[in-house]
Design goal:
This protein is 83% helix and 0% strand. With 325 residues, the chain is mainly alpha-helical.
Length: 325
């Protein structure tokens, strides 16, 4: 495939990854608002853990089927025994039990639109962690992007929320920031783990398997939540989780393919548009008004995140690629 075709396919898949993750955010919001998850305070607390467990478990099944069909599942199993696999497993703990659980709790408190926008700053925090832990150089434009991302979160956190109780809104923002820390840590740790002999699709399979096992064998039993797991499996809500896991897994596959075709910086820049796609889907499905704070915060965060992951010179090259599309 020519470089021109690579750019075109990469752009399409990158936009698709952001679109799919934005749609998934809205589906998660619908799942957590289901009557099954709102019966009493105990179930309301357990819902994000059980939903995350089933979602990651289903994604693990999807990824295993994909790797089996490609003849790569033996590589996945061997990956568990390698140093790289160990780091991916550690990254999975940050991305799943920490990141995804916080993401779902944030959804519960402030809804998909605000959660998606705040969580979109994870590449900025990932850049800081890479600077601290991996000694990666950070350029001036990157620091400027990190500053803009933080400003955008402040705009959403301080001025946002609309009619939502301010205390509740702040709790939701804190959970969204927890997701940011989890996903940023995951990206840095897994990137280190994939330096050797584990491919991204195999790594993603390991990530989902480890996350599902930790949820199902440790977290949910400790919280005595398997009764709710059984109720979900016997209800219609499971089909929404099946759909959510499929959409999320598709987003990740598109994202990794985009990185392969056009690079991590441009791929991530297209992927984080999920924050804006979430607003679009949420507005279309629920006919919710869009506040000025949400618009301003979204734009600031998007610009900041793009500056973190794409150099100004790359932005102009990317613009030329789009014009030649």
């Amino acid at each position: 495939m020519s470089n021109s075709n690579n750019s075109k396919v990469g752009c399409i898949l990158g936009i698709g990854s952001g679109l799919a993750w934005g749609l998934d955010a809205v589906i998660i919001g619908i799942i957590l608002a289901a009557s099954l998850f709102s019966q009493n305070d105990n179930i309301i607390f357990l819902a994000p853990f059980v939903a995350a467990f089933l979602k990651d478990g289903l994604s693990a099944i999807y990824m295993s089927i994909i790797n089996i069909s490609r003849g790569n599942f033996k590589s996945v199993l061997k990956g568990f025994k390698t140093k790289g696999g160990l780091f991916i497993a550690i990254g999975a703990l940050f991305g799943g039990p920490l990141g995804m659980t916080c993401y779902m709790f944030s959804m519960r408190y402030i809804g998909p639109a605000y959660t998606a926008n705040i969580s979109a700053v994870y590449p900025a925090i990932g850049a800081v962690l890479a600077f601290i832990l991996l000694k990666e150089k950070i350029e001036k434009s990157t620091w400027m992007g990190i500053g803009l991302s933080v400003l955008g979160v402040f705009v959403l956190g301080y001025f946002g929320g609309g009619t939502v109780n301010k205390g509740t809104f702040i709790i939701g923002v804190l959970f969204a920031l927890g997701a940011v820390v989890g996903w940023a840590s995951e990206s840095v740790i897994c990137a280190y783990g994939m330096k050797d002999d584990i491919g991204p699709i195999e790594a993603l399979n390991i990530r989902y398997i480890i996350s599902a096992i930790v949820y199902g064998a440790i977290i949910v039993p400790i919280l005595k939540g398997h009764f709710l797991t059984g109720e979900v499996l016997a209800s219609n809500t499971i089909w929404l989780l099946v759909l959510s896991a499929l959409v999320a897994t598709t987003s990740f596959i598109f994202y990794y393919k985009t990185i392969y075709l056009i690079g991590a910086a441009k791929g991530t820049a297209l992927n984080i548009t999920y924050a804006l796609w979430t607003i679009v889907f949420h507005t279309l499905i629920f006919h919710t008004p869009i506040t000025s704070e949400l618009i301003v915060g979204s734009v600031i965060i998007t610009l900041g995140t793009v500056l973190v992951i794409v150099k100004p010179s790359q932005i102009f090259n990317f613009k030329r690629n789009i014009q030649n599309f």
